[in-house]
Amino acid sequence: LLLDLWGLGLLIGVQVYYSDIRSIIMRALANDGIMVAYTLYNPEVIRLEPPLVVTQGQVDRFLECFEKALKGTEDLLAQLE
Fold first, then answer.
1. Among 33, 36, 69, 72, which one is most buried in terms of CB atoms within 10 A?
2. What's the pTM value of the predicted model, to 2 decimals?
């Protein structure tokens, strides 16, 4: 298992157990204009904290970008095997 998801409402934590993989995912999201950060107390966890005024369209866009980042990371890792 490479990652876990947890949270409440739209405050989500994505725990990625390998720092290189976490960096690839975060870079892919940043390249698509999605801002994410590490948690203060656990650098394995990527924080997702949308504002209270987030729209359904913005949530959908994030999910598309997150899926793309995960797929791109998976493809990259497959090339390295």
1. 69
2. 0.85
Q: Are 24 and 73 in contact (CB under 8 A)?
A: yes
- Residues with Cβ within 8 Å of residue 63, at least 6 apart in sequence: none
Q: What is the pLDDT of residues 1-19, one digit of tens each?
A: 578 988 988 889 999 998 8
Distance CA 4, CA 25 (A): 14
Q: In 3-state terms, the chain is what percent helix, strand and coil (to 5)?
A: 45, 20, 30
Give all strands (DSSP E) within 1-81, no chain letters. Answer: 3-8, 11-16, 37-38, 45-48
In angstroms, rounded to a whole number, what is the distance separating the alpha carbons of residues 41 and 45?
Answer: 9
